[in-house]
Amino acid sequence: MSIQRSRIGALVLEDGRIFPGTPFGARRPAEGEAVFTTVMTGYQEVVTDPSFYGQLVCMTYPLIGNYGVCDEDEQSRRPWAAGLIVREYCDRPSHWKARETLASYLERWGIPGLAHVDTRALTRHLRTHGTMRAILVPDRTGLTDAELVAWAQRAWTPDREDVVPAVRGEPATFGPADAPHIVLIDCGVKRNIIASLLRRAVRLTVLPYGVDAATVLALEPDGIVVSPGPGDPTRATDAIETVRVLATSGIPFFGICLGHQLLALAAGARTIKLTFGHRGGNHPVKEIPTGRVRITSQNHGYCVAHDSIPEQDGWQVWMINVNDGTVEGLRHRSLPVLTVQFHPEGSPGPQDSQDLFDAFVELVQQRWRARTARPIVLAGEGA
Ligand SMILES: NC(=O)CC[C@H](N)C(=O)O
Predict the structure, then answer these.
(1) What is the ipTM of this complex?
(2) Where is the active site (predicted)?
(3) Which of 70, 160, 201, 365 is placed for a possible disulfide with 97 were both Cys, Cβ 3.0 to 4.6 Å?
(4) In angstroms, rounded to a whole number, what is the distance separating the alpha carbons of residues 168 and 343?
(5) Which of 51, 193, 232 to mutate to test the pocket of ligand 1 (most atoms within 8 A of CB)?
(6) Catalytic residue among 257, 260, 300, 328
């Protein structure tokens, strides 16, 4: 069948643009926010990143599916993207780890895909006009274009409510008992954040979003991590007060993406929505104190408004995005707080910022050593 004739489905944007495509994965319609990511590999990490919940994700890289799907690349317990939009879809993967095709994986989870889409035109449109409401339909027959556009205008998007409860996981513990203890608040954590911490010989307790500060403090953590997660950070009201108490407790605190935004809101700053967000694997970020530039993995639609950061309270911009100057990280003059808007765990994307886990775990170890120190009794003393 020719591509023209197979393009019976479509991505329909709320502003009236219709992008035809060939359905793959689950044959059902989906509503969401149309976004794009420029990562060149890592489609499985993208769809299983809980921060993509409720989003119809366009991959700008033009060949998707060619290495299939495997267990190791999964970043959470299931795929969360509302739908996947690609240029060319490959249904005959070639990789020794592949256990199934991307299409059968998406189909098992009820997620529709759309191939043969002019993803370059779609991306240029979203860059100019911003991310927007959209629907993905596997088959346009039966509905007029006007009816499809009216449906897209009513589409549900993840900024409508607090969507973090939909993706958070179950409580879990990892690592040896006799090690520095980190409590991670799971707003939609990715597995490589957990793995990156565990590689540094810590004990980890994961608690779902919604936990209060007293419960966290009762576990006597040496460090606290607040994970990435989906949606508009101002909707995640169950965490903002918790983060305020924890970040000012003197315990080392590491906020990643949504965790960074929640810290900023807790400190009294504002968040704003970016026109088309930052989603990709090559965003340059400059560390202000050193001038060092990192190439980072990103997936966010919101950012912290620079002019709202309460510098009088000791909060300082630590990192900025080299492309658009937006805030990419915060530190505090005296508290052991580090936050980043990007993803030091990569997955997908570069691992260049793994040193941030080193920096955080170093603070955690210092606290643990101070907390567990026993007075050293020299031989002969006190005898
Ligand atoms: N990956 C994330 O944590 C994303 C944070 C937030 N949902 C945003 O889009 O900005």
Answers:
(1) 0.98
(2) 257 (nucleophile), 343, 345
(3) 70
(4) 18
(5) 51
(6) 257
301 is known to lie in a ligand binding site:
yes
pLDDT at 382 over 60: no
- Give residues with Cβ within 8 angstroms of 378, minimum separation 6: none
pLDDT of res. 199 = 97
Please tell me the pTM assigned to this model.
0.96
Phi, psi of 102 (to 5 degrees): -65, -35
- Rounded distance from Cα 266 to ligand 1 centre (Å): 16
Q: Is 51 annotated as a binding residue?
A: yes
HSE-up of 98 (CA within 13 Å, CB side)? 17
pLDDT (tens digit, 9 = 90+) per residue, 53-86?
Answer: 999 999 999 999 999 999 999 999 999 999 999 9
Q: Is the CB of 231 under 6 A from ligand 1?
A: yes
Q: Return the number of other C-beta atoms located less than 10 Å from residue 177's C-beta.
A: 7
Structure tokens at 45: 């990490």
- Secondary structure class of 127 (helix, strand, coil): helix
Q: Which domains does the chain carry? A: 3-154 (3.50.30.20), 164-371 (3.40.50.880)
